[in-house]
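Figure S4 source data
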Amino acid sequence: DSSNVNPQDFWNCGCQIVAMNYQTPGPMMDLHTGWFLQNGGCGYVLRPSLMREEVSYFSANTKGIVPGASPQVLHVKIISGQNFPKPKGACAKGDVIDPYVCLEIHGIPADCTEQRTKTVQQNSDNPIFDESFEFQINLPELAMIRFVVLDDDYIGDEFIGQYTIPLECLQSGYRHIPLRSFIGDIMEHVTLFVHIAITNRSGGGKPQKRSLTARMGMKTRDYTMLRNTSLKT
């Protein structure tokens, strides 16, 4: 069996190494490849800082607010696409595709969600989407964002390209996202044009400034310490 497990499930538990079948491309390998864009792409990523604390109340099955974490709000505006190719093996469909974009959030159960844009009819060169989305992220250090472009079709939507990146690596502002093929290669001149904003949910929607220590996952966190109690007999 050359299928792949979901590496996100293991990262949520604090694992740093997950055995993958590199010969099998797909969403699971996209997550794996994207995860190790962190730390300069050196191949080593620390566990989230709250997992490295002496006292931690984190659970991999968390479905709400994570004690000690700094929740954030991710604002994504999908503006347009550039030079989308026809899906592989779709020669008989004609020269024009009907693209749309899916945004997937991967992370702890409370953060996992998916949204999509409308379909742009018959435009592969410069489809205009102009749609905004907002995602509540409870544990940013484990969150991954996957941008997927698909061709809307009656029989089945076909894959065009994707790009997967950790939330910690996202930079605010207007960005061109280079899309990768199904096997993970960067497709030349094939991009998504987006606007990214990340705000601090606990700070009343103020922009989240990322210092060097924040990007390295070294934020100071406060925990309720356990105290010893003496029981009289």
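Figure S5 source data
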Amino acid sequence: KNVEILLQEKVAELKEQFEKNTKSDLLLKELYVENAHLMKALQVTEEKLQGAQKRNHILEEKVRALNRLISKIASASLSV
């Protein structure tokens, strides 16, 4: 009878461990999916950042060109 009690306790322990493992497995799968979504969002954000940086660079070049043009116009108007 002692062995039967020990076996029942072991079965209960294993069932509890199985439930914990099942919950952990589900949580792990949810985290994996969430991580995949976050990685995709990060990729999209990085692509948007690169686009913004390119547009910013173009605008900076235009500002420099306009400043050169204004400088030439100012020089020309002063020499008239």
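The first helix runs from residue 2 to 79. The chain is about 100% helix and 0% strand.
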